[in-house]
Amino acid sequence: MAHSKAVYATDHAASVLQTHSWRTVANSTPYLIPHLRSDMTILDIGCGPGSISVDLAKRAPNGHVTGIEYVPDPLDEARSFASREGVTNIDFRVGDIHSLAFPDNSFDLVHVHQVLQHIADPIQALREMRRVAKPNGGVVAARESAAFSWYPENQGIQTWHAVTERMAKERGGHPTPGSYIHTWAQEAGFPVGRIQKSTGTWCFSTPEEREYWGGTMAERAQSSGFTTMALEGGWATAQELESMARGWREWVMNEQGWFGVLHGEIVCFK
Predict the structure, then answer these.
(1) Where does the record place the Methyltransferase domain (predicted)?
(2) Which CA distances in Å does 174 have to 75, 105, 233?
(3) Is CATH 3.40.50.150 correct for 14-269?
């Protein structure tokens, strides 16, 4: 993401990186698995701490993965993670999704996960992704959240949802665009017949899953860039942030609780 055009409503605090580090190909990009080859060159945009990037590199042992982020903050962790996993066919660098620093036709696969919703110009981003994808088989892929649902009713989580959506819209972002990312791809130059659409889900319901998801969300409400932005921008009061954190902690402790995320997915063929 470009620093000047990023509208990400948080930062790369430990609680945020913990959430992102959970992501793998299996739980976050399963729709890509049929399209992966062992010799692919892959660009993973918005790579964060590198968990998906490293997994892609493992699945393309004869290829290469480049992960980019709009700020350097998470990249040391990404490099350390790759080293711990013994993955060498990968590199990480700072990059701008709106103006990718790569020649035309450079990659077999150009991928984003939960990135387009956080930038000011997703159509320009998809144009750039299309430009650097190889012709005659190059793939551009994206997965973005489309809707949230949870049980039981919880005022703190409801406040979190309302505040995060309002923050994103007023900062120029596009909350939950998964239901219409295929229209962005068409505007970016992909013919309708070259855009494959699908959906995927996350569901957090076991005690361990609730602790992971709800625990990190509670931390975000109290000590992350989201907290600072919400207070400084007037989107939430300290009392509302405390209500969010308390709501997430109550949800974690409810053995009947579950939280679901519906994602929209596209695979676009150049």
Answers:
(1) 37-147
(2) 25, 28, 18
(3) yes
Residue extents of the structural domains in the chain:
14-269
Q: Are 195 and 201 in contact (CB under 8 A)?
A: no
- Within the chain, residue ranges assigned H as helices are 14-21, 25-28, 51-59, 75-84, 122-132, 155-170, 181-187, 207-222, 225-232, 238-253
How far is Cα of residue 112 from the mean position of the Cα atoms in its chain?
Answer: 7
Residue 57: name the closest of 123, 109, 118, 114 by CA.
109
**Rounded to whole angstroms, what are the CA distances from 179 to 66, 147, 176, 197, 262?**
28, 9, 8, 10, 9
* Secondary-structure breakdown of the chain: helix, strand, coil percentages, each rounded to the nearest 5: 45, 20, 35
How do strand 139-151 and strand 258-269 relate by DSSP bridges? antiparallel
Alpha carbon distance 105, 129 (integer Å): 10
For each of the chain's 270 residues, which pLDDT tens digit applies? 333 455 544 444 454 445 558 899 999 999 999 999 999 999 999 999 999 999 999 999 999 999 999 999 999 999 999 999 999 999 999 999 999 999 999 999 999 999 999 998 999 999 999 999 999 999 999 999 999 999 999 999 999 999 999 999 998 889 999 999 999 999 999 999 999 999 999 999 999 999 999 999 999 998 878 899 999 999 999 999 999 999 999 999 999 999 999 999 999 999
Alpha-carbon gap, residue 150 to 38, rounded angstroms? 38
Handedness of CA 1, 213, 175, 261 (dihedral sign): positive
Cα–Cα distance, 47 to 113 (Å, whole number): 8
CA dist 168 and 255 (Å) reads 31
